[in-house]
Write a structure and sequence with these properties.
Keywords: Signal. This protein has about 475 residues and is mainly β. It is built from three helices and 41 strands.
Length: about 475
């Protein structure tokens, strides 16, 4: 028996972005049942030549860190005007919009909005977002202060969305229509034939979308593996380059397009848009991204890339010239990411945790760890740092620093991390019965010159969540 699985047919029957990887899952399932499987190859899938001027960056590394983690299945991000707040759309379950501190990666306790499906997000200002949901075919306006959603229109299977800054949303419609639309957002009530206009419906497996501000849209044909330029005025398309499994796009404003691709272990490609159309090659600039979807550039030119399978939002620097300079000989470099959503009851124990990642160029063995208690109401518990290794718990005792009862030093904690590896550390502290619900005590971790604060929320004495 031969089971033939078509990528196009699969996309039509499952949740949009997930269908990009469902084909492989179905093939595996068929094999385990004893059937022989022939997976239909995308028609005329292009194998792009790759420029190789330098080795690509890799995640995680000194140039690629996690801007946010444990985000479920992140499909898209948007950064506010200050660069301090990152909004992340998580399309697991019914879909949730989260607010994340862009500096620390800490996720808000409460979601900004729920029931958003598998959404793309674009900010009109720091209080207003537009969401396009592939599952419900709806385009919403969302009040970021209240989470209230207002339906604007419907678009069949929206894959990507951007705002032009002049009262229009451009939406790339995927499976079902493969159409690029221009949608008028200026009027509350408007006939659909006036609100929604077709820019082009001749792109192919339309997925990614970006505007260059000069009257052109750049779009991707995922199945064909092609980057196109489309005139916003006439809909005329021009092939720019072959890009394997070209997914989502960001433009840097300096003649380059960055495109995510789920080839290999997750790749970010760069295409030089200043070259003659059709002559540019796709240069592999980042690898190790997992299952990359959206890509955006922040105010400093760093790429923010969602890894839908790993639950990460990667932040990649040095896109313009390769890897950052290596750390000086002997230097140890780490990143610390406190684990969120920790709670405790007054008089009980809290277990603050932190993820430690080796971002340097050499292996890290033993390291001293310094712990600093937060405000009043917190005391040392067993004064031990714990970590789990190979199915067992490793304990390192700590001692209170003489003359500073709020600080403990844990000597020679065995991190044993090669470059790019991570480990989670935890400790246990006691809390005072005098703490009130919604208080946020903390402990600060310091390792190899880097510090990060873990805080937690006090619950009611009966253990029920407090309304903060």
């Amino acid at each position: 028996m031969h089971a033939v699985v078509s990528s196009r047919a699969v996309r039509g029957g499952v949740r949009g972005r997930r269908a990009r990887w469902v084909t492989a899952a179905l093939a595996v399932a068929a094999l385990t049942s004893g059937a022989s499987v022939a997976v239909a190859a995308p028609a005329a899938a292009a194998q792009a030549p790759e420029a190789s001027a330098q080795d690509p960056l890799h995640c995680p590394s000194a140039a690629c860190s996690r801007a946010a983690r444990n985000m479920g299945q992140p499909s898209d991000t948007a950064l506010d005007s200050t660069g301090k707040t990152l909004y992340v759309a998580d399309d697991s379950g019914a879909g949730t919009l989260w607010k994340v501190d862009a500096a620390t990666g800490k996720k808000s306790e409460d979601p900004v909005a729920t029931g958003i499906g598998s959404a793309e997000i674009a900010l009109a200002d720091d209080h207003t977002a537009y969401l396009a949901d592939f599952n419900s075919d709806k385009l919403w306006r969302v009040n970021l202060d209240t989470g209230q959603k207002h339906e604007i229109t419907t678009v069949k299977n929206p894959e990507s969305m951007v705002l032009d800054g002049h009262g229009h949303a451009y939406v790339a419609s995927g499976a079902g229509s493969y159409t690029l639309y221009r949608i008028d957002l200026t009027e509350e009530e408007m006939p659909e034939d006036q609100r929604k206009q077709i820019v082009t419906d001749r792109v192919g497996d339309l997925t990614g979308l970006a505007l260059d501000g000069q009257g052109n849209a750049y779009v991707t044909d995922f199945t064909g593996g092609i980057l196109y330029k489309v005139s916003q005025a006439t809909g005329r398309k021009t092939k720019i380059a072959d890009v394997p499994r070209a997914n989502y796009i960001a433009l840097d404003g300096h003649g380059h397009a960055y495109l995510t691709s789920r080839t290999e272990d997750g790749v970010l490609y760069r295409v030089d848009l200043t070259k003659e159309p059709g002559t540019a090659t796709a240069e592999k600039v980042v690898t190790g991204l997992g299952n990359p979807y959206s890509v955006h550039l922040d105010h400093a030119g760093n790429a923010l890339i969602t890894d839908r399978t790993g639950g990460n939002v990667w932040r990649v620097s040095h896109l313009d010239g390769g890897a950052p300079p290596p750390p000086p000989p002997g230097e140890t470099k780490v990143e610390l990411h406190p684990v969120a959503h920790i709670t405790a009851v007054p008089g009980g124990s809290a277990v603050p945790r932190v993820n430690v990642t080796n971002t340097g160029g050499k292996r890290i063995g033993n390291q001293d760890v310094r712990l600093k208690l937060g405000p009043e109401g917190v005391k040392w518990g067993f004064n031990v740092v714990y970590q789990d290794r190979d199915g067992r718990t490793v304990e390192t005792p700590c001692r209170v620093v003489e003359g500073d009862p709020g600080t403990s030093l844990c000597k020679d904690v065995p991190l044993n991390l090669d470059p790019g590896q991570s480990v989670e550390l935890r400790t246990e502290v006691g809390t005072s019965r005098g703490l009130k619900p919604c208080d946020m005590p903390s402990i600060t971790w310091s390792i190899a010159g880097t510090s990060a604060k873990s805080d937690w929320v006090m619950k009611n004495e009966d253990g029920s969540p407090s309304r903060c």
